[in-house]
Specification:
Order of helices and strands: EEEHE
Largest sheet: 2 strands, antiparallel
Strand content: 15-25%
Structural class: mainly beta
Number of domains: 1
């Protein structure tokens, strides 16, 4: 199940560097996760200081 980033995202970028498959990119006002690339590893969830990432 792909992960999603909520509006709680502060665009710090800490999740982007943790994604092993490059599924996270900077979007309009927050980062976004490409569901087709996400491998559901959870690395981004651990890296997010705002707990803004959850399973879809």
């Amino acid at each position: 199940m792909p992960h999603v980033i909520s509006d709680e995202c502060i665009s710090c970028g800490s999740c982007e560097s943790e994604c092993p498959v490059g599924a996270i990119s900077e979007g309009d006002g927050k980062y976004v996760i490409d569901p087709d690339l996400c491998i559901d590893c959870g690395s981004c969830m651990d890296a997010c200081p705002m707990d803004a990432i959850s399973e879809e």
